[in-house]
Structures are given as C-alpha cells and as structure tokens.
Amino acid sequence: MNISPKLAFFAIVSTLAYLGLAVWGLGGFAAFFSHGALVAVAVATVVMAVASLFTEVNLSSGEREDRANRWVLPVFGIIGLLSGYLPAYTDRIDFWTLGGEGVRWLGALLFILGGALRLWPVFVLGKRFSGLVAIQPGHTLVTDGIYRTLRNPSYLGLMVIGIGWALAFRSVIGLVLAALTLIPLIARIHSEEALLRAQFGREYEDYCGRTWRLIPGIY
Known about the structure:
This protein is an all-alpha fold. 64% of the residues lie in helices and 2% in strands. It has a two-stranded antiparallel ribbon.
C-alpha cells in the first residue's frame, strides 16, 4: 500500500501538535513524562497515528455527498484543540480534578481501547471510510463482524478516546468536552444514516432494525 506523503505529513504534524498542547498545558516535558499513564497515552497516540497511515481513509466526496454536514468538521477541530490543552492545564493547577494515579491509568486504558475501536472499523471499511459524509464508488454495506450489532463502532471508539484522555489528566472539564463532542457526532451520524437510507433503501432499514446506533443496549 502506498502511503500518501500529504497524509503522512498531516498525521505527524497533527499528532505532535496535539501532544504538544498537552505537554504545554501540564507545564513541560518533565511534568508530562513523570506520569507513567501519560507516557502510555503518548505512545498510544503515536502508534495510532502511524497505524492510520496504513488505512485507506480519505476526504473524497465520492459519488454523492451531504455537504450541509461539513459544519461538524471545524466544530470537531475546535473541541479537539481545547481538549488537547485544557485537561492538562486543569490537571496542572488542580482545578476540577478527580482522584490520583489510579484514575490516570484508567484513562490510559480507555484511551488505548478506544483507539483500537476507532481504527478497527477504518481498516474494515477501507476506501468507503471518508472524512466527509459521502457515498463512495462501489459503496456496499458492511453488516457483519464488528458491524453486526453496532452501526457506528468507530464513533463509539472516538467517544471512549475522549473519555480516556480526560481521565488520564483527571479532568472534569475534559469529560465535559468529551460530552460536547456528542453534538456534532450525532449530527454526523444522522446525516450519514439519511444518505445510506437513500442509497440502500430497505436493505439499510432492515440493518437499522437489528442494530444499535452508537451504544449497545442504550442508543
């Protein structure tokens, strides 16, 4: 598989920038890397970035796109920037923090599990996974494996990542930011489902009837 130089550059820069915000917020490299749980989070972040280079994720508008949903992209970006810095900063000044090192390690574990859940479906979908809400050429439904009971496992992974990141810094504000991510995330899910319903009709309706949207047993 050929790795796009542009994708590689973006992945490296964005990963370093995100970790840099956290290091800055916590007060520097010494403060950040003095916590084993945060070292684990940093390593996991780099591993996820490298793994993403071997996916076929794209920003193609494909055969048909819901362009009205593009507003979620800058919203995700703003929440992401705030999440990069604020949880670490509130950790440093001990503002709205939870517990101690045990909470950090719980956060690191959730972050790693969320990362795996985020990336697994991306590999499964291949070129069908786009940063835009779009139908790709040759688009087909995947209804088995990780998609057997859950329609949006990658988005659940994204939420678990956000919760794990917040807990790694013991940050209540980080948890609030993770919760705010649900607003653009649910809007994107609804747009995707409308597009898939229009594309696949009864096949998709039947699939929705036997699966959960985001959280098994709840939603």
